[in-house]
Sequence to fold (306 residues):
Amino acid sequence: MIRTCQLTLPHGITLSCRMTGEEGRPVLMFLHGFPEAAFIWDATLEHFAQPENGGYHCIAPNLRGFEKSSAPVDPAAYRAKHLVQDISALIAQTCNAGQLECLVAHDWGGAVAWTVAATQPQLMKKLVIINSPHAGTFLRELQHSPAQQASSAYMNFLIRPDAEALLAEDDFRRLWAFFTNMGAETGPHAWLTEHIKDQYREVWRAGLTGGCNLYRASPLRPPRPEDPAAAAVTLPPAMLTVMLPTLVVWAMDDIALPPALLDGLQDYVPNMQLQRVSGASHWIVHERPQEVAGYIQRFLEPGAGQ
Fold:
């Protein structure tokens, strides 16, 4: 059974969370992306709470700005350091041992997880990233790859001051297209049912500004003549190197994040396993939840990833 709660962190931010499993057991934490929310992990939470699958205490927070979590108005409140502070504080508050068994993250959640793992590796034993680019390879591609710049052009739409209003038009027509452009309704692993649509509507009606503010706060977007964006960015190695055992699951039909983002990734993540998944899109967590859970399950086994 999924439980929901509001957890207020020491620095004043409240995160709405979905949980399964027995408190006091080893903890797995799952971070969602945009335009999603914590509910995308429900099947995975229920899987790993089962005794035969580890009997973990599983936690999926809604990131700040999503669903019922705190939603500061200022875009600067969505800079990486603040998102990292939220997740670090949540780990400290929910893990008796102060350390996750594993942090699992997708899309924007992955951007947060990469940084937590690089700067505070003591907070977790292992890391799983699902279709979320590492800042080192993403910056390289945004600066030098016309293909990546074209694939990421939507980011410059999402920073517009009227982005929220445009996204909400016609029953969120533009947001549904994020999914349907990758086969959510007609593909071989179609998943966008009316029930799931209603779950998304509830999240989006709670507000879209937080999600758009993630993009407004980050310079990692394609450069334009009036906005240098990624072209003006340099990142220190200390923010990029992840020494933890890491599993990267990459759906190869992701039209927003081409596989070139995997090139050179081992230079930043030397203890990495890479699982390429053919015939899956950016929304692989929806498309193939059992397969994703299986990859994570094997990675969590003692000795795996060492």
The CA atoms of residues 187 and 205 lie 27 Å apart. The first strand starts at residue 3 and ends at 8. The chain has twelve helices and eight strands.
